[in-house]
């Protein structure tokens, strides 16, 4: 895997401990578990794709990992270690010290995430001043370099632009530059290309991956698409209704999925490629009416009486699956 030495700094956490590790993380909103006993590990210098249908809880996980979902809005249980800090128990002050220098977030919709009243320079300067202590001239120079690094032509001229003066693809590039401004160890990108034209989606994904590798950083990509996940991620975690149902090396999960839900995702992707959409029948149960056993059972061809009991996540070789019938 990629060398962490590319960061050019020593880090006590890089040797053995994973950069991010969620252990039995549960997040409740008004009594309902939106994330239910989620365990995920992200080794330092690696990339993980979190995939699943709309409403699975992927963005909720991404926001929780950034420390953006906190009591009293939600109730958090379990542990979520990022770079040696437990996000569940950290103070707002500790979280602020993590966001920016240690972790960055790229949102799905750059137009909504950027402040319409701030120029590109103001957006980029804020983290540079706050976390790196750069003065005005240094912020300007660094901002130009950052824009250049994300493929924005004539970066000097773009500094004075407001978000609405930029195309969607350019806004997304600016947001990537902001997220990476302080050279974080962890980048979380929540469907970073789904608001963009198909033609530039691949460019932006490639760009993010290049930048992450150049920094020796680790990344979590939230994605819908299993095939795209296999292209950009070392490992894939499949989320269904707030639970991780399968996790393993990306190629293996794509080519030989074990969980019936992942198999359904793969089948629908393949049939879609052949222009015959094969959706997984049924819908995700409402969070307020989630069954106590396997949450996928109602849609699963292999469901049996045993599925009324929650399947434990069992590790087989390099893959872990939560299914009685995998
Ligand atoms: N602010 C909120 N208040 C109440 N419920 C919410 C809120 N945001 C999300 N939810 C619910 O939490 C669950 C998980 O949503 P989340 O946005 O994390 O899913 P997702 O996997 O990111 O979906 P998508 O692929 O559509 O982005 C959904 O049932 C959603 O309706
Ligand atoms: Mg989402």
Give a structural overview.
- With 326 residues, this protein is of the alpha/beta class.
- The chain folds into two domains: 4-102 and 184-321, Rossmann fold; 103-183, no CATH class.
- Helix content is 33%, strand content 21%.
- The chain has eleven helices and twelve strands.
- It has helices at residues 58-65, 92-98, 110-113, 120-132, 136-149, 155-158, 168-180, 198-215, 226-232, 250-255, 260-273; strands at residues 20-29, 32-42, 47-51, 75-82, 85-86, 103-106, 186-190, 218-223, 235-240, 243-249, 314-316, 319-321.
- β7 (186-190), α8 (198-215) and β8 (218-223) form a beta-alpha-beta unit.
- The protein is globular and about 65 Å long.
- It binds adenosine-5'-triphosphate and magnesium ion (MG).
- Adenosine-5'-triphosphate (ATP) is lined by residues 29, 34, 52, 54-60, 287.
In a nutshell, what does this entry contain?
This protein has 326 residues and is of the alpha/beta class. It has eleven helices and twelve strands.
CATH class of the largest domain: Alpha Beta
Estimated radius of gyration: 20 Å
- Our estimate of the beta-strand percent is 15-25%
Q: Average pLDDT value? A: 90
Number of strands: 12
Q: Please name the CATH topology of the largest domain.
A: Rossmann fold
With helices defined by DSSP (H or I, 4 residues minimum), what is the helix count?
A: 11
The poorly predicted ranges are 1-14
Structural class: alpha/beta
H/E element sequence: EEEHEEHEHHHHHEHEHEEHHEE
- Sheet with the most strands, sense and barrel status: 8 strands, mixed
- In helices, the fraction of residues equals 25-40%
- If strands are numbered along the chain, what order do they take across the biggest sheet? 6-7-8-3-9-10-12-11
């Amino acid at each position: 895997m990629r060398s962490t030495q590319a960061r050019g700094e020593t880090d006590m956490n890089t040797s053995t401990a994973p950069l991010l590790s969620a252990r039995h993380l549960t997040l409740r909103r008004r009594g309902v578990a939106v994330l239910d006993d989620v365990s995920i590990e992200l080794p330092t210098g690696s990339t993980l794709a979190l995939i699943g249908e709309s409403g699975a809880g992927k963005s909720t996980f991404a926001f929780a990992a950034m420390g953006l979902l906190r009591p009293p809005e939600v109730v958090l249980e379990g542990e979520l270690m990022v770079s040696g800090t437990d996000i569940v128990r950290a103070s707002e002050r500790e979280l602020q010290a993590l966001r920016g220098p240690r972790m960055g977030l790229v949102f799905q919709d750059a137009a909504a995430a950027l402040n319409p009243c701030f120029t590109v320079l103001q957006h980029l300067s804020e983290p540079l001043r706050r976390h790196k202590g750069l003065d005005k001239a240094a912020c300007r120079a660094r901002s130009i370099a950052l824009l250049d690094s994300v493929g924005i032509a004539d970066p000097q001229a773009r500094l004075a632009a407001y978000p609405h003066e930029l195309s969607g693809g350019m806004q997304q590039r600016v947001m990537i530059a902001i997220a990476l401004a302080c050279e974080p160890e962890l980048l979380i990108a929540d469907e970073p290309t789904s608001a963009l034209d198909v033609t530039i989606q691949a460019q932006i994904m490639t760009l993010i991956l290049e930048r992450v590798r150049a920094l020796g950083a680790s990344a979590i990509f939230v994605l819908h698409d299993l095939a795209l996940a296999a292209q950009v991620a070392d490992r894939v975690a499949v989320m269904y209704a707030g639970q991780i149902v399968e996790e393993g090396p990306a190629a293996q999960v794509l080519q030989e999925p074990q969980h019936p839900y992942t198999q359904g995702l793969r089948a629908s992707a393949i049939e879609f490629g052949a222009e015959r959409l094969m959706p997984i029948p049924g819908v995700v149960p409402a969070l307020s009416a989630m069954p106590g056993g396997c949450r996928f059972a109602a849609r699963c061809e292999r469901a049996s009486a045993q599925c009324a009991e929650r399947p434990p996540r069992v590790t087989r070789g390099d893959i872990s699956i939560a299914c009685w019938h995998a």
